[in-house]
C-alpha cells in the first residue's frame, strides 16, 4: 500500500523538460519572419489600393490612351498578360516535363548531371539577356517562318495576316517567356520525379511494364501536385516578366488573338516599365492601379494552385 501510494506522487514530481535559449530564439525568429511577410504583403496591398483610387474614379479624358474609364484602359493589358503567359506555358510545360523525365529516368548518370547543371545555370540568366537574344536573334530568325505560316494556314484566326515584318510579335515574346520558364519548371519537376517511390517503379517493371508505362503508372501520379506547383512557378515568372517583353514586343492597345501581326497586345508589367518614367498625375495612378490588377491576378492564380495541390496532398509513396 505504501509503495502504491507513493508512486503517483513520484510521477507528479517528474521534472519538466527545460527549454533551451536557442530553441526560444529560433521559435521567436520564425514567428517574426512569418509575421513580417504578412505585414509586408498587407503594406504593399494597401499602398496599391490607396494609390489606385484616383485612377479608378478618374473622369473621361484624363486617363492615358484616351480611355473612357480605367477598365477600358487596363482591359487590353490584362488580355495581353494572360495571353502571353498562356502561350508560354503551352510551349514550356511539355518541354519541361520531357526534359525532367529524360534527366531523371532516361539519361545516363554523367549526362543527367551535366544537363542538371546546365538547367540550373539557365535559371540564373538575367531576363535582359533573354530579351536581347529574342529581339536580335530569334525575331529575325522566325520571321520567314511566320510568312510561311500565313501563306499556308492564314485561314486560321491565330495565324491570320498581315504578318509582322520584324518578327516582334506576341508569339516571339511567348517563345522567349517559354525559354525563361523552362529552367525553373524543369528543375522543380526533376526533383519531384527523383522522389518517386523506388518500390513502385521496380514493381511496375517486374510486372512487365515498359519504362514509359512505369513512368505513366508510378511516377506521374506521384508527381502530379509537384508538376502543378512547377507550372504555377513558371506562370508567375511569365506574368511578372518585364524587360524581356518590353524589349521583344511591339505593343499596341488592342485585344487580338492573332499571334503573327504587327499589332500585339501589351502586358501589364511591360507597360509599367515603358510608361513609368514619363507618367504624371492620373497617368501614374493608372499604372499603379494596373499593378494592383496584376497583383490580384497573381494572388488568385496562387490560391487556385494551392487548392489543386492540397487536393492531391493525400497521395504519398507509402500508399
TrEMBL record:
Sorted UniProt keywords: Cell membrane, Membrane, Phosphate transport, Transmembrane, Transmembrane helix, Transport
A single cellular component GO annotation: plasma membrane
Protein location: Cell membrane
Gene Ontology molecular-function annotations: phosphate transmembrane transporter activity
Pfam families per the UniProt record, alphabetical: BPD_transp_1
Spans through the membrane: 25-50, 70-103, 115-139, 170-194, 242-262, 282-305
Membrane topology: Multi-pass membrane protein
GO process terms (BP): phosphate ion transport
Location, primary (coarse class): membrane
Residue ranges of domain ABC transmembrane type-1 in the record: 78-305
Gene3D superfamilies: MetI-like
InterPro entries, sorted: MetI-like (IPR000515), MetI-like_sf (IPR035906), Phosphate_PstC (IPR011864), Phosphate_Transport_Permease (IPR051124)
Functional summary from the UniProt entry: Part of the binding-protein-dependent transport system for phosphate; probably responsible for the translocation of the substrate across the membrane.
Family membership noted in the UniProt record: Belongs to the binding-protein-dependent transport system permease family. CysTW subfamily.
Protein name (Swiss-Prot/TrEMBL): Phosphate transport system permease protein
Natural source organism: Frondihabitans australicus
Amino acid at each position: 500500500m505504501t509503495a502504491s501510494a507513493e508512486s503517483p506522487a513520484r510521477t507528479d514530481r517528474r521534472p519538466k523538460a527545460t527549454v533551451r535559449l536557442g530553441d526560444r530564439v529560433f521559435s521567436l525568429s520564425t514567428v517574426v519572419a512569418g509575421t513580417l511577410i504578412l505585414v509586408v504583403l498587407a503594406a504593399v496591398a494597401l499602398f496599391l489600393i490607396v494609390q489606385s483610387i484616383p485612377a479608378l474614379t478618374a473622369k473621361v479624358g484624363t486617363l492615358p490612351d484616351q480611355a473612357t474609364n480605367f477598365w477600358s484602359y487596363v482591359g487590353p493589358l490584362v488580355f495581353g498578360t494572360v495571353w502571353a503567359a498562356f502561350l508560354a506555358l503551352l510551349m514550356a510545360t511539355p518541354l519541361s516535363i520531357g526534359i525532367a523525365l529524360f534527366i531523371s529516368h532516361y539519361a545516363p548518370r554523367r549526362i543527367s548531371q551535366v544537363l542538371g547543371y546546365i538547367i540550373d545555370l539557365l535559371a540564373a540568366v538575367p531576363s535582359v539577356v533573354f530579351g536581347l537574344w529574342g529581339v536580335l536573334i530569334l525575331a529575325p530568325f522566325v520571321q520567314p517562318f511566320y510568312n510561311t505560316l500565313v501563306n499556308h494556314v492564314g485561314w486560321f484566326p491565330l495565324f491570320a495576316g498581315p504578318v509582322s515584318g520584324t518578327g516582334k510579335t506576341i508569339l516571339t515574346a511567348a517563345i522567349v517567356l517559354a525559354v525563361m520558364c523552362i529552367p525553373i519548371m524543369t528543375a522543380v519537376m526533376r526533383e519531384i520525379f527523383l522522389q518517386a517511390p523506388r518500390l513502385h517503379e521496380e514493381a511496375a517493371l517486374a510486372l512487365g511494364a515498359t519504362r514509359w508505362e512505369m513512368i505513366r503508372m508510378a511516377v506521374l501520379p506521384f508527381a502530379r501536385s509537384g508538376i502543378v506547383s512547377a507550372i504555377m512557378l513558371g506562370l508567375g515568372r511569365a506574368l511578372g516578366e518585364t524587360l524581356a517583353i518590353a524589349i521583344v514586343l511591339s505593343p499596341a492597345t488592342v485585344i487580338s488573338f492573332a499571334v503573327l501581326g504587327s499589332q500585339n497586345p501589351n502586358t501589364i508589367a511591360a507597360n509599367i516599365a515603358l510608361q513609368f518614367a514619363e507618367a504624371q498625375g492620373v497617368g501614374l495612378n493608372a499604372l499603379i492601379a494596373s499593378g494592383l490588377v496584376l497583383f490580384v491576378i497573381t494572388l488568385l492564380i496562387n490560391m487556385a494552385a494551392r487548392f489543386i495541390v492540397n487536393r492531391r496532398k493525400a497521395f504519398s509513396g507509402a500508399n
